[in-house]
Amino acid sequence: MNFTELSKTRQSCRKYNPANDVENEKLEAILEAANLAPSACNSQPYKVTVAKGSKAKEVAKATTGMGMNSFTADAPVMIVIAEGSYSKTAAMGAKVKGNDYRSIDIGILSAFITLKATELGLGTCILGWFDDKKVRSLCGIDTPVRLIISLGYPEDNYPLRDKKRKAISDYVSITE
Ligand SMILES: Cc1cc2nc3c(=O)[nH]c(=O)nc-3n(C[C@H](O)[C@H](O)[C@H](O)COP(=O)(O)O)c2cc1C
C-alpha cells in the first residue's frame, strides 16, 4: 500500500477477532516502525508497555466505562503509551517555548504504530478514554499514560468505512 492507500485503510477498529492473536514478528515490526518516529530533539520521551494475554484484558477493562470502549475486551494486545523523560534540550525547549512536545511526540508515535499495523493487515484503535491510575498500577508505570492503542485482527468482513472529515478549507488557510 502506498501512503494514500494506507491512510484510507487505517481506521479505528471496534470489532476484533478474539481467536486471532498478533504474531510476535508483526508486533516487532510495529515497534521497529514506531522507533523511526520523529520527536522533538529526537528525545523519544515516552515509555511503551505492550500488554498481552490476561494483562491486555485487565488494561482493556480500564479503558471502559460510561458506554465507552467495550470492544477492547476482544483485542489481544493493548499498547500503553506513557510519558517518558525529555532529553535536556527538549526539556529546555518545552520550558522556554511553553509547548507540550511530549504529547505531540506521543501522537506522532501513535500514527506510526497504527499505520504500520494497517500495512500488516491488523486493526487498531487509538484510545484516549481510560482510567490512568488503574492502567499505571496494572503496568507498573509511574508517569501519566497519554494514549492506549488496541491491536488485533478485525473480525471477518469488517467493513472499510468512508472517511468523514471536515472540508480542508474549514481549517487550512494559505498565507503569503
Ligand atoms: C487522541 C485520540 C483519542 C481517541 N479515543 C478514542 C476512544 O477512547 N474510543 C474510541 O472508540 N475511539 C477513540 N479515538 C478514535 C477516533 O474516534 C477516530 O480516530 C476518529 O473518529 C476518526 O475515525 P477513524 O480513526 O476510523 O478514521 C481516538 C482517537 C484519537 C486520535
Helix-strand layout with pairing:
Elements: H1 3-9, H2 24-34, E1 46-52, H3 53-61, E2 77-83, H4 88-97, H5 101-119, E3 123-127, H6 132-139, E4 145-152, H7 168-171
Antiparallel strand pairs: 1-2, 2-4, 3-4
The structure holds flavin mononucleotide.
Task: List the defining traits of the structure above.
single chain; 176 residues; alpha+beta; four-stranded antiparallel β-sheet; 39% helix; 15% strand; binds flavin mononucleotide
Please describe what this structure looks like:
Helices cover 39% and strands 15% of the residues. It is built from 7 helices and 4 strands; from the N terminus they run H-H-E-H-E-H-H-E-H-E-H. The protein has helices at residues 3-9, 24-34, 53-61, 88-97, 101-119, 132-139, 168-171, and strands at residues 46-52, 77-83, 123-127, 145-152. Strands 1-2-4-3 form a 4-stranded antiparallel β-sheet, with helices on both faces. The radius of gyration is 17 Å and the shape is globular. The structure holds flavin mononucleotide (FMN). Flavin mononucleotide (FMN) binds next to strand 3.
